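Ticket 4471: requesting a sanity check on a complex prediction with flavin-adenine dinucleotide. Repro inputs:
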Amino acid sequence: MMRPKPEVLVIGAGVSGLTTALLLAKNNLRVRIWTRDALLRTTSCAAGALWGPYLVSDQRVLPWATQTRLELERLAVRDRSCGVRVVYGHEAARTAAPPPGWATELPGFRTSRPDELPAGFTTGWWYRAPIVDMPTYLRYLYDRFTDCGGKLDQRAVGSLAEAVAEAPVVVNCAGYDARNLVPDASLRPTRGQIVVVDDPGIEEFFAEHDESEEPTYILPQHDHGRVVLGGSVEPGRTDRVPDERISTAIRRRCAEVMPALRDARVVEVRVGLRPTRSRVRLERTAVDGGHVIHNYGHGGGGVTLSWGCAHDVLSLINAI
Ligand SMILES: Cc1cc2nc3c(=O)[nH]c(=O)nc-3n(C[C@H](O)[C@H](O)[C@H](O)COP(=O)(O)OP(=O)(O)OC[C@H]3O[C@@H](n4cnc5c(N)ncnc54)[C@H](O)[C@@H]3O)c2cc1C
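Returned structure tokens:
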């Protein structure tokens, strides 16, 4: 039997593609996802993931991030199995810096006392924010998407023209691979690696504020007895093989902040390629008489921006 053609074809099943596809399906559109990689092999699956806006000089970023935070907070309350938890924790800077404005508006915000700062850090602040266990959350989004009648095929798209021949509206959520698909030479890879360990009893998160190629962060996944340790920021590197030297350095830095992590058993190492661009590309273009809506280039903030960007895609489709 011939399957009915989708009204919307979403390319990609990372956090951008799944969130967008779910929102569109909830709004009664017939949606199909084509993804080259299985959910758990995407960059999204390698994210920490702590909610936190980045590239905030772009005026779209804070509204997208806030919309996403509110949705993640709702999900955390509504469905404990979705992989999202709102966690209290400490962000600290090695070089003196004021807290960003967005942080001061978060629940539980306060500045750190000097005796709370780990060695080597000079200022800090506390707040409550969503932490997402990405393997669980991606499966949750996929299940909700199929509950709404959405379909997913694991197959690669060779070109946007091929996609437009399949559906009148295409949403491009190809992450770093949009570089070749669009093509968009301004999109760059920024490799990142995390180490997942057994939880020795970590209650609060820790995140380094400084922009560095060796950021230190400790993100408890309370529902799974695991802790995500990070991280690395490696511009231009594209291999996805775990690097033992980087894992060792991550574990050492995290144990300096929380000594209980020193002998924690390593469960897995995850690697992803952040799709780095000077600004997120979210706009509608025409390809071969069809509509292509780009939603890629979220760099180190794709989880943080996911629901806000998905709502803008929906608005662009409604305006066609
Ligand atoms: C170590 C690390 C830590 C991070 N921590 C955080 C964090 O704490 N908070 C945060 O907000 N963000 C974080 N990020 C960033 C976040 O992971 C990314 O911004 C986000 O995953 C991008 O999602 P995406 O869905 O756009 O792309 P991806 O997850 O890369 O998904 C792209 C999808 O497109 C598909 N695709 C590509 N090309 C084709 C094709 N030709 N045909 C069909 N399908 C195709 C792929 O198969 C995949 O399904 C982190 C990233 C890393 C690496």
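Notes from triage: The radius of gyration is 19 Å. Leaving this open until the requester confirms.
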